[in-house]
Amino acid sequence: MTLFELQEWLGHASPSATQHYAKITPLKLAKSYADAGYFARNLRAIEVLIDQDAVRTGIAPADPWKFYDLGHGYCTYDFFEQCPHRMACAKCDFYMPKQSSAALLLEGKANLLRLLQEIPLGEAEEAAVEDGVAAYEKLLLKLTDIPTPAGPTQRQIGSDLVQITALRPSRTTSSDHL
Description:
Elements: H1 3-10, H2 15-21, H3 26-35, H4 38-41, E1 48-50, H5 52-57, E2 66-69, E3 73-75, E4 95-97, H6 102-118, H7 123-143, H8 154-157
Antiparallel strand pairs: 1-2, 2-3, 3-4
């Protein structure tokens, strides 16, 4: 029942009188939250993967051994729950992209490069795009040491993930078309 329905049923003149008699205990409040599914809706669980081989063999203090699975990559920051960035990981040194996200990274970089080529940008906009391209290149570089499904890494194979050499083609003027 709502407060107003309960007020009517009990014959109280005002909702405040009903509230005075209808005390809610902490247990009843917790049960109401649980019944409404509040906790299930607001629970965000991130799987934590432990590199047991690294732990058993005694890793160097700088080498990661705990990986928070973000879906698109892994966070190796030991205090992930306190991370001020939380999911804005592209420039973070603790972020390791998954091999499966390589195609998305290449597409994102290509889209940024297309912005430089097709849209006239101001200095600040151009700097932001170039900063984004640098972030994508950093992420793609991290993937060169991740093993492929066949076993060897991109670095061992000797192939690069991307072959883009120029950021901006030369601009043509209307007099060039005459």
